[in-house]
Amino acid sequence: MRTDLPLDQHRASTGLVDVLDRVLDKGLLVAGDIRISLAEVELLTIRIRLIVCSIDKAQEIGMDWWRTDPHFSGAYVGKPAAENLELKRQIRALERRIEELAPHIADEEEALFPVAEGIDAAATERLRREHREIDALVARLAAVLVAGEEPRAVMHDIAVLLHDHVRYEERAYFMEVQERLPAELLRQVGAAISMRRVGRPSPHS
What we know:
The chain is mainly alpha-helical. It folds into 2 domains: 7-73, no CATH class; 79-197, no CATH class. It has helices spanning 7-26, 55-60, 70-73, 79-116, 121-147, 152-180, 183-197; strands spanning 28-38, 41-52. The chain has a two-stranded antiparallel ribbon with strand order 1-2. β1 (28-38) and β2 (41-52) form a beta hairpin. It is elongated.
């Protein structure tokens, strides 16, 4: 059985190879613009600039962007692992921060807020609402981690909320309570919180 190509097909194949070899050696530039207009008003313009050439030719004319692209140059190797380690470190730090604040939040809810809400009900309700938001975000983060999804957005929301919450407490709410709450009530609140902390394990123990 003959396997020779017909003469015309052989010539076509040879011609195609020659053309491809010339394109790769010399380079081929394709340029064009696509404009979409409505009632003579230009809505969208797509500029097309395509260069086809060999790698050697691309380097010769200065188009060697893949050398500095970490995904192509090899610099990306090991980066995902390093990013995962950093992400795990950030998660642990956030978890420790939440553990530290959990007893503090419970003390406020049980010992401080019932007394202080008579002074500033709106501010007390704001802090209670933020406590619920923190709990909801922490639960959401746990679900995201279990599902193996990207947690950074939720972590950011938690960090921002915690920062703003603590900042408002320390710079506004606590100062108002200390100024307006009678000394005896302040003493009772302090004693109640101290009693709650007796025997309480440290978050890091």
